[in-house]
Amino acid sequence: MKVVPILLPVALGQLYHYAVPEGMAVQAGDVVQVPFGKSTALGCVWDDDATPMPDIAKIKPILAMVRPHIFTHAALQTIDWMAHYTLAPRGLFLRMGLKDEYLAMPKRRVAKKADENAVTASAERLALNTDQIHAITALNTAQDEEKFMPFLLDGVTGSGKTEVYCAAIAHILAQGGQALVMLPEIALTHSMLTRFAQRFSEQVHVWHSQRTPAQRRTTWQHVADGKPCIILGARSALFLPFQQLRLLVVDEEHDTSYKQEEALCHNARDMAIVRARFERCPVVLASATPSLETYHNAITGKYQWLKLNARATGVAMPAVELLDMRQFKLPKGQWIAPPLLEALTQNFHAGAQSLLFLNRRGYAPLIVCRPCGHKMECPSCTSWLVEHRRKGALACHHCGFEMPMPQRCPSCLAEADFVACGPGVERIYEEIKDKLPDARCVMISSDTAAQQEVLAKIAAKKCDIVVGTQIMAKGHDFPHLAFVGVVDGDLGLSTIDLRAAERTFQVLQQVTGRAGRHKDEKYPSPLTGEGAPLGADEGEITHSQVHPHPSLRDTLSRQGRGEVCIGAMIQTYVPDHPLMQAIAAHDRDAFYAAELAHRQRGMWPPFGRLALVMISTPRTLSPMPCAKALLEAAPHMENIRILGPAEPTLAILRDRKRLMLTLHCAKNVDLSGYISAWLAAAPKFPHHTHVRVDMDPLSFG
Ligand code: ADP
Ligand code: ZN
Questions:
Q1: Nearest ligand to the C-alpha of residue 381?
Q2: Which of ligand 1's atoms lies nearest the C-alpha of 251?
């Protein structure tokens, strides 16, 4: 009797053994149907494994072959590797790429109208610049040699990074290969789809959680059939059953959305690199503001560094000016300083579009009862409730709890008399509507129901002032945006997070980089000459004309009404902070060098390794005994430091009390191996106690 190990797409790490019926040929990667418990399940035939074989008499036979050759050897290896590294059950990774619904209907072969191989036929191509040509050649060479090779594609927003990987993808499609482009947000897949579809028509597929089951099935089948295609997807696309994966792209690779922190804790960017290694293909990490990890790998030569040195459109980077908020005394309930308001006003009168950026949803982050001082708190978390005035609700941004605005204070029972403290986007929207009543304003945040419509409205220049959260900082191209005002540049710096400065730099760089991305002959630049409008025939603005640029404010005062102010202003209380200085001077590399030196001194990532072990219990109990017992059970290792147990900022989350142990070690230590051995040998805890491991954590709260 032939017996094979099979992995089931459920929250289990172990393999199960099944007998192969007479006459059935199976091999690793085949999807089969097997009896499981009282029911049946899909499973994937796995490679040989150390899982001990059960008693022969207990082994049941495979019921049916569902589809052979679904997962390649590289896919199985990736899942094994990820499960080992993250300590998450293997079956959950398989589940991301294998569900009954993907196979449910019989495969229909739809006759394609267009010739599938006529890839590059449509639309005329741009004349690529030398940086772009160099990058494309490097990618194509790695792809032709079937070599694993990680690349950092590094260039400011608008430098033509997307154009570069599009060209590499065209090369791959022409050879019948498949490519995966990962994007940090579902909203970005929509705008990217438009751009890709123009070039690659029906070979582009989108994959994320909001697709319909029918769409998912079609895409899954297309990929599993090994047809040439491009998948534009969120992080889950990494687990699709690619047959011919020749290139992976992780766009906006610094984005923390790639890190999943719930059940299946992993970083999809890092896992894309793992998959590329097993697939033996290039992987491109693209960003204008790479993560320090990636940047460090580029500096040390671990990744090939492809630099695009200027905006492809020839437009210079916008001038960025810091507004020292210590200088301004704003009336209560107002947050827009006079120079910022002036820039917005002038741009409005000149017919140019502006963005007011604040990375905070809702109306106010804190609501206090005026008579008694009670702060409205989430019943399930250690966090304040945020007022969402449009909805008339209070909401917790951590657990999703929502309640209508109360009629009485829950503490002193006085009739509602609440003070809203601090601004969110809704409040800034109110302020600007009040100051510029004639301007057409829109607001956008993740709470906006009709995001696509609002984005389209902005792109079509049907509004003058956009008030928005980080949605506006990500990937999207807003061709008409001339000016960006950052309401609170320091937001995010206040956390104890190791990466607070890096994050803040990235957000500010990304959002200010949205200003004046495109040549728009209606907009003369105030940055050239003596504030004189740039004639349509005067050509491009070069870097040297911008450095050092005149102060935006000086320019404004010289300009008359009707002229556009291209650039960005950041309101900050710490204008001397190195990151603020770096933003204003467009000196990313100086900031990164200083940050790296700082990390190196403490042996923090990327020089060392971190892991969190989060222990939680229902809030009526305490995780402390378990945390202490775990700590005691930790094998002593000279080179691994364990800190804690400590309370995270969110000491209670979703009604669970939490404590964390932080592990810190050198880069070359197998921390995953250490933790799995430790947890396997540790005492068993009651069922209500959860122990979760987060390798390479990005948040510590
Ligand atoms: P990024 O991905 O770096 O933000 P994109 O690839 O989106 O940059 O390019 C920014 C803009 O510049 C796009 O409108 C694109 O069509 C244009 N572009 C890209 N490469 C060139 C080029 N070589 N010449 C002219 N325009 C270009
Ligand atoms: Zn909550």
A1: 2
A2: 2
Q: Per-residue confidence at 524, pLDDT binned at 50, 70, 90?
A: very low
Between the CA of 366 and the centroid of ligand 2 the distance, in Å, is: 13
Which is more confident, 590 or 699? 590
Pocket test for ligand 1, best of 313, 317, 518 (most atoms within 8 A of CB): 313
Rounded CA gap, 291 and 255, in Å? Answer: 8
Consecutive H or E run containing 18: strand 16-19
Reference 185, options 248, 271, 256, 265; nearest CA is 256
Q: Token pair 């106690």 is at which residue?
A: 689
Q: Report the DSSP pairing between strands 282-287 and 149-155.
A: parallel
Ligand 1: residues with CB < 6 A are 126-129, 132, 155, 157-163, 312-313
11 contacts: CB under 8 Å, gap ≥ 6: 89, 91, 92, 263
Instruction: Tell me what pLDDT residue 356 has.
Output: 97
CB 186: neighbour CB atoms within 10 A?
16
Could you tell me how many residues make up the chain? Answer: 701
Say if strands 31-36 and 64-67 run parallel, antiparallel, or are unpaired: antiparallel
**What is the gyration radius of the CA atoms in the chain, in angstroms?**
27
299-313 pLDDT tens trace: 999 999 999 987 777
Q: Which ligand is nearest to the CA of 288?
A: 1
User: Could you give the 3-state DSSP secondary structure of residue 99?
Assistant: coil
Query: Which residue is closest in CA terms to ligand 1's atom 27?
Result: 312
Task: Report the pLDDT value the prediction gives residue 592, as an integer from 0 to 100.
Answer: 96
Rounded to the nearest whole angstrom, what is the distance from the C-alpha of residue 510 to the centroid of ligand 2? 29
Q: C-alpha dihedral over 637, 641, 643, 649, to 10 degrees?
A: -130
Q: In angstroms, what is the span from residue 314 Cα to ligand 1's centroid?
A: 10
Element (H, E) at 189: helix 186-200
Three-state SS at 39: strand
Distance CA 553, CA 523 (A): 18
Interatomic CA distance for residues 265 and 267, integer angstroms: 7
Distances (CA, A) of 22 to 54, 64, 314: 20, 12, 67
How many secondary structure helices (H) and strands (E) does the chain include?
Answer: 19, 31
Locate the ligand 1 atom nearest the alpha carbon of residue 159 and give its number.
3
**CA-closest residue to ligand 1 atom 6:** 160
Confidence of residue 532 (pLDDT cuts 50, 70, 90): very low
Average pLDDT over residues 468-485: 86
Q: What is the pLDDT of residues 11-24, one digit of tens each?
A: 888 899 999 999 99
CA–CA distance from 385 to each of 242, 393, 488 (Å)? 44, 9, 20
pTM over 0.85: yes
Asked, as a colleague might, if the bond just before 618 is cis with ω within 30 of 0, I would say: no
Terminus-to-terminus CA distance in the chain, angstroms?
53
Residue 559's pLDDT band, with cuts at 50, 70 and 90, is low
Protein residue with its CA nearest to atom 15 in ligand 1: 160
Q: What is the residue type of 399?
A: C
Ligand nearest to the CA of 251: 1
CA 429 from chain center: how many Å? 26
Identify whether the C-beta of residue 691 lies closer than 8 Å to the C-beta of residue 612. Answer: no
Nearest-atom number in ligand 1 for the CA of 132 is: 23
C-alpha 427 – ligand 2 centre gap (Å)? 22
Return mean pLDDT, the chain: 88
Does 467 have pLDDT greater than 60?
A: yes
469: left (phi over 0), alpha (psi -120 to 50) or beta: beta
Tens digit of each residue's pLDDT (9 = 90 or more) over 76-110: 999 999 999 999 999 999 999 999 889 875 555 55
